């Protein structure tokens, strides 16, 4: 559970002041929330629960401005993507999940993941 949460939070939040400390703290908070949620969870694969809680925790605790900052790092461009495309990029590239696992987490088909990833990459290339 820990490495996946840390990779996800680092991919979503990026480095702050040349370190991942803030992202690691958010991952730790998400881990605590997962431990609280597990006993009563019956909504599908554990990886889906992990993603839902990590995404919500990052959204709540990330103090980034609402508009995307200028720059070329992936983490700076991600907020400009639609939520599904952003989630797919973070799960596929930042966390290293397969297309099938990403589809399982997001409750969509692998084909939808591939199409949305292609769209996200096209958008990101246009922003660079």
What does this protein structure show overall?
- By secondary structure, the protein is mainly α.
- Helix content is 68%, strand content 0%.
- The protein has helices spanning 2-13, 21-37, 46-61, 74-77, 83-94, 99-106, 110-127.
- Helix 1 packs parallel to helix 3 (46-61) and helix 2 crosses helix 3.
- The chain starts with a helix and ends with a helix.
- One of its GO terms (biological process) is DNA-templated transcription initiation.
- Keywords: Sigma factor, Transcription, Transcription regulation.
- It holds the Pfam family Sigma70_r4_2.
- Belongs to the sigma-70 factor family. ECF subfamily.
Tell me the layout of helices and strands:
Elements: H1 2-13, H2 21-37, H3 46-61, H4 74-77, H5 83-94, H6 99-106, H7 110-127
Helix pairs in contact: 1-2, 1-3, 1-5, 2-3, 3-6, 5-7, 6-7
Pfam families: Sigma70_r4_2
Family: Belongs to the sigma-70 factor family. ECF subfamily.
Protein name: RNA polymerase sigma factor 70 region 4 type 2 domain-containing protein
């Amino acid at each position: 559970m820990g490495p996946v949460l840390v990779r996800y939070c680092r991919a979503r939040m990026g480095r702050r002041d040349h370190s991942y400390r803030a992202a690691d703290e958010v991952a730790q908070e998400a881990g605590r929330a997962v431990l609280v949620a597990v006993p009563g969870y019956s909504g599908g694969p554990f990886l889906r629960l992990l993603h839902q809680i990590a995404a919500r925790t990052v959204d709540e605790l990330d103090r980034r401005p609402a508009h995307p900052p200028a720059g070329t790092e992936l983490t700076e461009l991600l907020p400009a993507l639609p939520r599904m495309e952003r989630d797919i990029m973070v799960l596929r590239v930042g966390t290293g999940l397969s297309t099938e696992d990403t589809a399982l987490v997001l409750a969509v088909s692998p084909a939808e993941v591939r199409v949305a990833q292609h769209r996200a990459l096209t958008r990101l290339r246009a922003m660079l």
